[in-house]
Amino acid sequence: MTLDQRDIGPDAATLTVDLGALVANWRMLGARAGTEAGAVVKADAYGIGIEPAVTALSSAGCRQFFVAHLSEGIRARKAAPDATVYVLNGMLPGSCGLYAEHGLSPVLGSHEELLEWASFRQTGATVRPAALHVDTAMNRLGLWPGEGRSLAREKAGVIAAAEIGLVMSHFASSEDEADPANARQIAAFAEIAAAFPGLPASLLNSSGHFLKGCPAYQLTRPGYALYGGNPTPGRPNPMQPVIGLEARIIQLREVEAGMQVGYNGRWTAKGKRRLATICLGYADGYPRNGSWTDTVTGGSAVVGGALCPFVGSVSMDLIILDVTDAPAGSAVRGAPVTLIGGPLDLEAVGAGAKTVGYEILTSLGRRYQRRYVGL
Questions:
Q1: Is 42 an active-site residue?
Q2: How many CA atoms lie within 13 A of 371 on its CB side?
């Protein structure tokens, strides 16, 4: 139990994280690619916690991690002192010293970043090799492909001075195998990788591991799939579930036909219904868009094996369920209710909240009692 959880009471929802499943997913993806798999642990390891995730993966043999922010990199470095930790979101001016101090590798995606990093290295500072990001479709971060090829031809230029240790790009649509953008990106990155012979390359994200005919190169960068998200939407999920979320019923009541429930009375009983209120809400990271009203469907929970729809608005700390059809004796005060788990995988929960599983994961709240199992 961590320090910030000691005062969490019995009313708190419980988030169970299976670190054994996390490691198994990482191993499966590496075996599928036939090359080294790194691990994307940005956004607090997609909500499960950087420290436990990095510690578990590092113990299993993962040697390369990717984060979004410098602050995340510092946390990952403490958990894995000998690993390579890349910071994906570029390098802000004047931050080279912090990268050197904490042994972090910036992912450089512009001439300005390259020049600043190369200049810093020439001061004699001890730094780890950086990565070079070439943009092949996203128009978000990274050098244009032509810029990357031009830099590659300058053998003694800024690339050499910056000591690049990895060249990478990022898929825009790899979860959609039929999207022609994938083939264009694969071809564009093949030219980039060929322009840097002998330099390790990385293209595959989670869904990229399942794209037919896509080279794995020397390093892959799975993220969402590590945490149990489905990298093949519309097909069976090949990954093991990593998280489960459970709350408890704190009160039950019956309402008659025509009675309105929740803020602004947005849900109206169509008949006599039995309702249960659970101690969890949008302050715990469950999206308010999971609300179920008279006109819009929303989220659900599992009570005694039965799927029970939400009733009315998801409020800050509470959600109401319609447990009329739950098995007898299952919906009682103090009984457990599953919000994530079983039939409610990340994709199902995301759909019910009109969002994606990524947002469900990365919004996991700080008020949960967290249980780490599996190792």
A1: yes
A2: 11
Q: How far apart are CA 130 and CA 251, in angstroms?
A: 55
Please tell me whether residues 216 and 267 are part of one structural domain. no
* 51-101 per-position pLDDT tens digit: 999 999 999 999 999 999 999 999 999 999 999 999 999 999 999 999 999
Q: Residue 75 to residues 100, 174, 224, 227, 244: CA-CA distances in angstroms?
A: 15, 29, 20, 19, 24
Per DSSP, helices labelled H in 36-144 are 42-46, 50-60, 70-79, 96-102, 111-121
Give the rounded distance of the alpha carbon of 353 from its chain centre.
17
Identify whether 375 is part of a domain: no
pTM: 0.94
CB neighbour list of residue 198: distance below 8 Å, 6 or more residues apart: none
CATH code of 100's domain: 3.20.20.10
Q: Do 195 and 329 touch, CB atoms closer than 8 A?
A: no
- Catalytic position from the list 42, 86, 368, 372: 42
The residues that bridge with 303 in the sheet, in sequence order, are 306
Packed helices 50-60 and 19-33: angle between N→C axes, nearest 10 degrees: 50
- Catalytic, 372? Answer no
Q: What is the pLDDT of residues 239-282, one digit of tens each?
A: 999 999 999 999 999 999 999 999 999 999 999 999 999 999 99
DSSP string, 131-157: EEEB-SS-SSSSB-HHHHHHHHH-TTS
| 150-155, long-range: CB < 8 A, 24+ apart | 151/114, 152/192, 152/195, 152/196, 153/195
> Which secondary-structure segment (H or E) carries 165?
strand 164-168
Does a structural domain hold residue 330? yes
